[in-house]
Amino acid sequence: SAVADLLLAVDGVTVDFDGFKALDNFSLTLQRGETRVVIGPNGAGKSTLCDTIIGRVRATDGRILFRGEDIGRLPEQQIVARGICRKFQAPGVLPNLSVADNLALAARRDRRWWKSFGFGIPVGERAMVEETLDLIGLADRRAVMAGLLAHGEKQWLEIGMVVATGAELLLLDEPTAGMGPAETSRTADLIRDLGADRAVLVIDHDMSFVDQLAASVTVMHQGRFLKQGSVAEVRADPEVAAVYLGH
Ligand code: ADP
Ligand code: MG
């Protein structure tokens, strides 16, 4: 039988910025193998949710459990070490390193490693680099300096860097920012391919992208949970239309 493998539980989390609740008693669970899209109008609290999961912002109330462990008081580096990794809106690739070396660096999770260049990619990281190059579709671009990639390719490389860390929970905040329709569609394919062993939390407000991802959707509004369901269910919901689609 398929026993649910709960990876993340955000349990009644409130984040209070001097009386303003960016998150207000918000809850969400994520199983291993699940991709969830969180949508909501600007200011709904989506980025704050990611900031809180990764430990950059502290919950003023509620708990965050990762594989059953309360991570709510851990520093960010320890949360990352436990297997959560976040991709930010702006690409954070190292422009003067090749695509493959950016991935090797992420696999190593050691930002000093690249300074000892000249030794090539350490053996332990090679398999992860090859696997990730295939996953993000940049195998033929492996030797290209990351700074010379097109915007979409940089975003895919950065998703690859998140994957290469070996993280089990990937947080992707607006992975299609600045992309045209063709790149957006390829990004949806890539995220669908991220595999059954991980869980992916995607934040976006591009409904065509959400349609293509075909994942379950959680709608936030003013820091609160509003709705959860399939894209079709969420699209047909009048409350969602009022707060989000009509925006
Ligand atoms: P979203 O990503 O859904 O657009 P955010 O999580 O960035 O929304 O922001 C939610 C609300 O919280 C916004 O009104 C924002 O101005 C506010 N906010 C975010 N960070 C802070 C902060 N550090 N201090 C005060 N208010 C903040
Ligand atoms: Mg945001």
From TrEMBL:
ATP-binding listed as a keyword: yes
Transmembrane region(s): none
Annotated ranges, domain ABC transporter: 8-247
Domain of life: Bacteria
GO molecular function: ATP binding; ATP hydrolysis activity
Presence of the UniProt keyword Manganese in the record: no
Record-linked InterPro entries: AAA+_ATPase, ABC_AA/LPS_Transport, ABC_transporter-like_ATP-bd, ABC_transptr_urea_ATP-bd_UrtD, P-loop_NTPase
Cellular component per GO, a single term: plasma membrane
Full protein name: Urea ABC transporter ATP-binding protein UrtD
Organism of origin: Edaphosphingomonas fennica
